[in-house]
């Protein structure tokens, strides 16, 4: 792991907290937790919150297949229109589209996101999933938990807990979007 602080392109101090190998190990551990909890593969499906949660869902599904020989349905959820701050983020929000090609009703859904912070993204995702039908259960999986919850939502499986201050930001970079696998913490040089 690189413990050196580096200035990011935005002029902020960025410190890597997970490298490619550590990130892969955490995804493998989460996969084994899912395999242990969900033995009935006929009744589970993965749903990743776009964008990085969707990539993590694909990676977890690949590892499930590698370790069990089973491949489970995977869906991708765009929560843009379910956000409670939609009018604050843009006049015309960009939609990336939800892709859920399986029946949600009665399934054990593994909901996957990269970072859990206030809990509002997860709340939006829960609302969106319920619009597809009532699942048997929703199991929340997050790569990073940075604290500061505003809603009473906790992940069932968490890769790493990273205590942060409100002026810090967690950057998850995945090779499919960012050409590198890493997780870093970013802070303004002056602490603001």
TrEMBL record:
EC code: 2.4.2.9
A GO MF term: uracil phosphoribosyltransferase activity
The keyword Transmembrane helix belongs to this UniProt entry's keyword annotation: no
Pfam families xrefs: Pribosyltran
Placement of sequence motif PRPP-binding: 109-121
Record keyword DNA-binding present: no
Catalytic activity as recorded in UniProt: UMP + diphosphate = 5-phospho-alpha-D-ribose 1-diphosphate + uracil
All copies of domain Phosphoribosyltransferase, residue ranges: 15-158
Annotated keywords: Glycosyltransferase, Transcription, Transcription regulation, Transferase
CDD domains: PRTases_typeI
One of the protein's GO biological processes: regulation of DNA-templated transcription
Enzyme class (EC, first level): transferase
Purpose: Also displays a weak uracil phosphoribosyltransferase activity which is not physiologically significant.
NCBIfam families from the UniProt entry: PRK05205.1-5 (NF003549)
The family this protein is said to belong to: Belongs to the purine/pyrimidine phosphoribosyltransferase family. PyrR subfamily.
Protein known as: Bifunctional protein PyrR
Organism expressing this protein natively: Flexistipes sinusarabici
Gene: pyrR
């Amino acid at each position: 792991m690189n413990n050196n602080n580096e200035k990011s392109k935005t002029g902020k101090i960025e410190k890597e907290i997970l490298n490619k190998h550590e990130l892969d190990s955490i995804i493998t551990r989460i996969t084994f937790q899912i395999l242990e909890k969900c033995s009935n593969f006929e009744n589970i499906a993965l749903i990743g919150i776009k964008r990085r949660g969707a990539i993590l869902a694909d990676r977890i599904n690949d590892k499930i297949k590698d370790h069990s020989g089973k491949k489970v349905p995977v869906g991708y959820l765009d929560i843009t229109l379910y956000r409670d701050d939609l009018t604050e983020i843009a006049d015309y929000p960009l939609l990336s589209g939800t892709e859920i090609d399986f029946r949600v009703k009665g399934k054990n859904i593994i909901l996957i996101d990269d970072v859990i912070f206030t809990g509002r993204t997860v709340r939006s995702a829960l609302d969106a999933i319920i619009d597809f039908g009532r699942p048997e259960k929703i199991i929340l999986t997050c790569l990073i938990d940075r604290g500061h919850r505003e809603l009473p939502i906790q992940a069932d499986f968490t890769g790493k807990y990273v205590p942060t201050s409100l002026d810090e930001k967690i950057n998850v970079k995945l090779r499919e979007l960012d050409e590198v696998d890493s997780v870093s913490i970013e802070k303004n040089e002056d602490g603001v």
